[in-house]
Amino acid sequence: MSDKNGKKKNIYTIRYGNADGEMKCGHVTSDNEISAFMVRSGFFHNHYISLDGTGERHRQGGTICRSPGSFQVQAGDHNGTEDQTIFMRAENGDVFISAPNGKIILDAKSIMIKAQGDGGGTGTIELDANERVNIVGHGDGVKIDGTSGVRIASDKTVDILGQTMCNIYGGFIDMADGNSTAATGRPSKTGEKATSVADAFGVLDAITGIIGLDMDLESRMNQYGSLFKKS
Questions:
Q1: Whose CB has fewer CB within 10 Å in the chain, the N or C terminal residue?
Q2: What distance in Å separates the CA atoms of residue 45 and residue 22, rounded to the nearest whole number?
Q3: What is the rounded CA–CA span in Å between residue 85 and residue 77?
Q4: Which residue has the higher pLDDT, 198 or 9?
Q5: Residue 218: band (very low, low, confident or very high) from pLDDT cuts 50, 70, 90
């Protein structure tokens, strides 16, 4: 119940404790909610475990663990390697892990990250770093598969290296640099010029008429390739 000012009251509140710690049942919290049960250290006021009874949807029936020192969980001394020793599941909502002044370290024999979405844009895994992303695979190396497509892009340099062998396969492969697709300018690193290739096929006028110089590289390559499609 509450008084006329809206301050909650609970006449059944119980407290046991001494200078070292305390235990409360049904006490009213500082933000005017009722905690079903709370145990608190007497050494630190912000060291407690609380089972809340009232509050917003996420607060009712919620558990708060607060500690000014480390929060450590160790389990599984008697478990086997096939057992699921520590289990955390969010039936609804997000799982948020944050370390703004430290690192998040995952260390295991194997690590699996899986996003099983239900459609509508879900089922996505995103890696975003303001410096760099390093992926190193020893043994069998690194494998990247994309059933629909794979895209590797950079604002600066892309290096593809194969110290022993580098295999590139494709049903159709188009390779060009900016100079090779321009009607004027320096030759490309391959030594071929768009003008020389066009003259060999006698279609320079067709190229310059169809491919506008103000088009971007991708648009020019799409039309350029269609002129030399093999029958």
A1: C
A2: 10
A3: 9
A4: 9
A5: low
Mean per-residue pLDDT, 131-149: 90
Element spanning 182, H or E: none
Grouping H, G, I as helix, E, B as strand and the rest as coil, residue 7 is coil
| Interatomic CA distance for residues 36 and 211, integer angstroms | 74
User: DSSP class of residue 200?
Assistant: H
Q: How far is CA 10 from CA 3, 7, 26, 32, 146, in A?
A: 11, 10, 7, 11, 60
d(CA 43, CA 22): 11
Tokens for 112, please give them: 């699996």
- pLDDT tens digits, one per residue of 40-95: 999 999 999 999 999 999 999 999 999 999 999 999 999 999 999 999 999 999 99
| Amino acid identity, position 36 | A
C-alpha distance from residue 226 to each of 43, 76, 175, 207, 229 (Å) = 78, 64, 14, 10, 5
Cβ atoms of residues 25 and 40 within 8 Å: no
For residue 52, give both structure tokens. Answer: 């809340």
Q: Where are the beta strands (DSSP E) in 3-121?
A: 14-17, 21-28, 34-41, 48-52, 63-66
Q: Does the pLDDT value for residue 135 go beyond 70?
A: yes
Q: Among residues 98, 96, 76, which one has the least CA distance to residue 87?
A: 76
Find the mean pLDDT for residues 163-173.
Answer: 88
Radius of gyration of the chain (CA): 32
Average pLDDT over residues 152-181: 84
pTM of structure: 0.66
Neighbours of 35 (CB within 10 A): 21
